[in-house]
Amino acid sequence: MSERTVASPLGRDLPDGLLAVRAAEGDEDSFAVLVQRHSRPLLALACCLLGNAQDAEEAVQDAFVSAWRRLPEYRHGAEFRTWMYRITVNRCLNTRRRRLPPLPLDAVAEPATGDERSSPARAAEHDAARAALACALGELDAAQRVCWILRELQGLSYKEIAHVTRTSEQTVRGRLFRARRSLKEAMAPWR
Fold first, then answer.
1. Burial 4-42 (b: 16+ CB within 10 A, else e)
2. Residue 83 in contact with residue 74, Cβ under 8 Å?
3. Is residue 14 within 8 Å of 31, Cβ to Cβ?
4. What's the number of CA atoms in the CB half-sphere (13 Å) around residue 129?
5. Sign of the CA dihedral 61, 79, 175, 147?
6. Per-residue pLDDT for 47 more than 50?
């Protein structure tokens, strides 16, 4: 069986762990499957953390380049997905530190709906609420913001977030509690 068979539809059904092992052995097709499989959620995460698509795309691309180089170091006890989240979060935090003024976070743009009930007034209110949430997220400290985004927008478990942030589950729970409390206060006028 040739290494190229991974790119076939059948190869796409392989688990991340096996693809990562093959990629660590130099199989570029296996790594391409991993990139395709995980690009979209990582890009959404980076957009939430950085606030613009260009920086997010660059951070995710850098994360995958770093992952490719570090695949031989990858410990298979952790899921490939959470390993990539950790690398991407670190890239995003480094990008944010290099910026002079902090930019407001903004949620990933939602696709336009064809709902006739939507009106310009509702759209403006929705945009204002999103801007308020982005501002409130920007006011959180980086650790709380990362935990909140990973939990609420990416759907990671407490255990996965602890792995990504290299902290304990208890620390994650505390950060999420404080983040939710701060966001609840900041968003009170929008209820």
1. eebbeeebeebebeebbbbbbeebebbbebbbeebbebb
2. yes
3. no
4. 12
5. positive
6. yes
Q: Within its chain, how far is the Cα of 175 from the centroid?
A: 17
User: Tokens standing for 30?
Assistant: 């296996």
70/133 Cα distance (integer angstroms) = 36
CA dihedral sign of residues 45, 50, 54, 56 = negative
DSSP for 62-127, written as a single string: HHHHHHHHHGGG--TTS-HHHHHHHHHHHHHHHHHHH-SSPPPP-PPPPPPP--TT--HHHHHHHH
pLDDT digits (tens, 9 = 90+) for 80-95: 898 999 999 999 888 8
Q: Is the dihedral of CA 79, 81, 87, 92 positive or negative?
A: negative
Cα distance between residue 95 and residue 62, in whole Å: 11
- 3 has pLDDT over 60: no
For residue 117, what pLDDT is reported? 53
Residues in the chain: 191
Answering whether pTM is above 0.70, one says no
Q: Provide the percentage of residues in the chain whose pLDDT is more than 90.
A: 27
